[in-house]
């Protein structure tokens, strides 16, 4: 009943919703690529090779705080994707009989959603570096920086592989 | 405070993440196809082989990726590290309205 009403009201807007979905997927995937590749990673590698160098630590901290702020684009895009995706599923009359779509949804649930939950926590909530610095919590600040680096180490390979796979499945619909 | 990352830990993480994603995706996919549609083709040798080969590739790639990202490979000689004094811009804290 509720779904029928939703289809009736939003059904004619399917393509516009799809446009929003694709646009924000692009933002979600690409908004941090340059900052990550050419600012964050080189500085963190330098720190890992010189873990006690105070100049590198100062730059590492500054870069990490800027990244916490810059990732807002990605974290605004993600809820829009999570909202428009299921909406398209309902409006388009899709079912789990469509193999590529089922695999795509499973990958989003297994990879993207858990990663983003941790990322929100590390970037904006209790792991936010600026807030910890302003609170004078030096130990918490360092711990949060290191947790965030461990998060990047663990999530970078799956994000790069499975985000591309998710887009590939959506575009080519291979099976 | 020393960073806790090391090659042995990265190997364990790569194995765990590979099993979680690839194993999880395969099992959930197979279960949904079987329970909702009665399909059993997912358990045929081709899907199983593709999943296994992909998992092997991904696990190895993930471990090497983590090692490279964490500067465990190489000497960093591609980068110049010269001491430079700069002012790092900081955001002005927001004033409460």
Please tell me about this protein's structure.
The complex is a heterodimer of chains A (175) and B (97). Chain A is an all-alpha fold. Chain A has helices at 2-10, 14-30, 33-49, 54-70, 72-91, 99-124, 129-134, 138-172. In chain A, helix 2 packs antiparallel against helix 5, helix 3 (33-49) runs antiparallel to helix 4 and helix 6 packs antiparallel against helix 8. Chain A folds into 2 domains: 1-31 and 71-94; 33-70 and 98-175, no CATH class. By secondary structure, chain B is mainly alpha-helical. Chain B is elongated and about 65 Å long. The two termini of chain B are 38 Å apart. Chain B has helices at residues 7-37, 45-69. Chain B has 2 helices and no strands. Chain B has a domain at 7-73. At the A-B interface, helix 3, helix 4, helix 6 and helix 8 of A face helix 1 and helix 2 of B.
Features:
heterodimer, A: 175 residues, mainly alpha, 2 domains, 84% helix, elongated, B: 97 residues, 58% helix, 0% strand
User: Which two chains have the most extensive interface, and how many residues on each?
Assistant: A-B, 40 and 35 residues
In DSSP terms (H or I, runs of 4 or more residues), the helix count of chain B works out at 2
End-to-end distance of chain A, in Å?
31 Å
CA-based gyration radius of chain A: 19 Å
DSSP helix count of chain A?
Answer: 8
Low-confidence stretches of chain B: none
- Extract low-pLDDT stretches of chain A: none
Q: What is the strand tally of chain B? A: 0
Q: What is the overall pLDDT average of chain A?
A: 95
What is the number of domains of chain A? 2
Q: Which oligomeric form is depicted?
A: heterodimer
| Cα-atom radius of gyration of chain B | 23 Å
Q: What percent of the residues of chain A sit in helical stretches (DSSP H or I)?
A: over 70%
């Amino acid at each position: 009943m509720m779904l029928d009403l939703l289809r009736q009201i939003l059904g004619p807007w399917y393509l516009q919703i799809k446009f929003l979905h694709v646009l924000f997927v692009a933002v979600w995937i690409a908004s941090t690529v340059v900052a990550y590749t050419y600012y964050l990673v080189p500085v963190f590698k330098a720190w890992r090779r010189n873990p006690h160098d105070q100049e590198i630590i100062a730059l590492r901290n500054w870069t990490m705080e800027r990244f916490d702020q810059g990732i807002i684009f990605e974290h605004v895009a993600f809820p829009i994707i999570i909202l428009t995706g299921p909406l398209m599923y309902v409006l388009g009359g899709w079912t789990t009989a469509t193999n590529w779509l089922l695999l795509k949804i499973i990958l989003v649930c297994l990879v993207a959603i858990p990663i983003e939950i941790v990322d929100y926590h590390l970037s904006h909530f209790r792991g936010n570096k600026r807030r910890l610095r302003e609170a004078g919590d030096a130990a918490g600040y360092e711990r949060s920086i290191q947790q965030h680096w461990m998060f990047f180490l663990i999530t970078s390979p799956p994000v790069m592989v499975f985000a591309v796979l998710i887009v590939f499945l959506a575009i080519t619909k291979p099976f | 405070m020393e960073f806790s990352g090391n090659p042995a830990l990265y190997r364990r993480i790569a194995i765990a993440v590979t099993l979680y994603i690839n194993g999880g995706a395969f099992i959930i996919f197979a279960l949904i196809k079987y329970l909702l549609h009665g399909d059993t083709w997912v358990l045929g040798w081709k899907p199983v082989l593709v999943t296994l080969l992909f998992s092997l590739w991904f696990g190895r790639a993930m471990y090497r990726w983590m090692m490279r990202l964490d500067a465990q490979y190489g000497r960093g000689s591609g980068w110049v590290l010269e001491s430079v004094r700069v002012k790092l811009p900081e955001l002005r804290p927001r004033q409460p309205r």
